[in-house]
Amino acid sequence: MALDLTPEQKATGKANFEQASGDLARAGKMNSMVVGGSPSDQAKPDRRDFIKAGLAAGGVVPVSAAVYYGYQSWKGNKAVRTALIGCGDEGGVLVGDHNPEFNEIVAVCDIRPSNMKRIFDGDTGPRKGLKKLYGEKTAEKIAKYDSLDKLLADKSKLGLEAVVIATPLNTHDVIVKACLDAGLHTLCEKLMARTIGKCKSMIKYAKDKGLLLSIGHQRHYSTLYANALEVVNAGVLGDIKHIRAQWPRNNSWPFTASDAERAKFAQGFDIPFYRDGWCKPILKDDADALPPEKLAELAFGNVNEYGFKDVKELVRWRLYDKTGGGLMAELGSHQLDASSIILGHVKPIAVSGIGGKFFYGKGRNDRESDDGVFVTYEFPGPNHPRAKKGGKDESDIVVVTYSSFNTNSFEDYGECVMGSRGTMIISKEAEVYMYKEPEPAKPNSGGRDTKVTVTTEGGKKPAMEATSTWGGGGGAAISKAPGAAAWDSAVRGYRTEMEHFAYCLRKWQELKQPVSYEKDEKGHLKYADIIPNCHGEVAMADAILALTANMAMAKKERIEFDEAWFDAASDAVPETKHAKKA
């Protein structure tokens, strides 16, 4: 995120954050909030006490995600029998990071033969494959389906309890509803749906069915973001007025393939000009299995909404307006989700921005979606009327910017939170750096090279102080599964979101009642401790942020957010007024 940080300055920033976490915990000043979606989603007191006790003597305590999110009591439960629907890129990530002690994959479903092979064999990186995770003999017993109808028809035979959905965006709502109709608890990948109207329909459907609906914005289960949020909530950064978020990528290099790889490509389809994960070559196996008439049969009875005109549109669904939501839905939703979390889930005031096809074009990975975006959000500060009942300061605004371009990856992705007393950088979902603002006429009182501690003396608000040396030990260490690679630790949240989903499911089974999303008189979920952190209403807010930005860029205008859009019971949606006309 920061262009000019030296390795030494990064080490200082990382140690500053860990020191601040420890100082605040030892002083009992941690807010102890999970990264969930509402003020009612409180972390368990046992976590707070566990950290405080361990840090009292200056020690560093490893805190597992299970302890942090309150589901450490899993022992003795049977794994939830789960089916994966959608075995592409994101499905492979979820399979690669799931814990078979919580979710046992008993069936997989995908209409593309290449995806079915890949989900079992795996490939490099996080997509390990079922054979590696379960062993070849066990993996052979996992049922394979090439249509949703066939899978759901066998739900009893399979003993299915839940599904994980990782299909193209335009199919989320129809597949979620079919699975809920079948009595299955559902975890669906983000973005929640292609329109906010569909998001609201999904929320109502899950409530009516009395089943869990969780959406995979994994930062709600990242211990990294959870600890960062606690430090932010303690106030040590001062008055936050700007958050700079970004996800730069470089997909501008020529596409290359060996003769053996090219022999697998289908005839009659273009070969990518640039190397781009969203614009993949069309494989012969997929093209042969899925001619247009077969795709029409699989379109859930509505070709216009849920169908694909050919296999190319299916494979490259992120490139088209009907099937995907572009950079804002696929990448920006993560950054805006993180920014929203940091600001306490206040509803934004307005968004404006510019986006377009600035690089790709005819014969060069052409697409309908933008290949570069830069958007600016106006969020209410803590004293703004939209953030605080009785708030009167309409000038209390926090500016959040987000950018993503496909031609340069010089900077890392992440969020830079800038306050009047300090700066926090959350980089690549892996590290947090923190720095103190220098004080006027006080040499060495802040900056990139300054070590800090956090003081809480005399009943004052916690504040960063420059120090020549750190003292008292750092904060609670962020732990990961034994032997797990750095990528798939609890830091990123994929494993945790699936574990907690399974935990919530078992708790509702113990209660022997339908899932209840009932709220108390303050608007807080009555059963927040056994509802996934990113339930439908939380995920809908993330979708509103991403999809309204697309509308603002398409219309080249500033769009003000209507608070009724965020009310799941209201019929008001942004697409009614602001969607781009075909």
How is the topology of this model organized?
Layout: H1 7-26, H2 45-55, E1 62-63, H3 65-68, E2 80-85, H4 89-97, E3 103-109, H5 113-121, H6 130-134, H7 136-139, E4 143-145, H8 148-153, H9 155-158, E5 162-165, H10 172-181, E6 185-189, H11 196-209, E7 213-216, H12 223-233, E8 240-246, H13 259-262, H14 284-289, H15 292-297, H16 303-306, H17 311-315, H18 326-342, E9 350-356, E10 372-380, E11 397-405, E12 414-419, E13 422-427, E14 431-436, E15 451-455, E16 463-467, E17 477-478, H19 494-511, H20 536-555, E18 559-560, H21 575-578
Parallel strand pairs: 1-17, 2-3, 2-5, 3-4, 5-6, 6-7, 8-11
Antiparallel strand pairs: 8-12, 9-10, 9-18, 10-11, 12-13, 13-14, 15-16
Helix pairs in contact: 1-12, 10-11, 11-20, 18-20
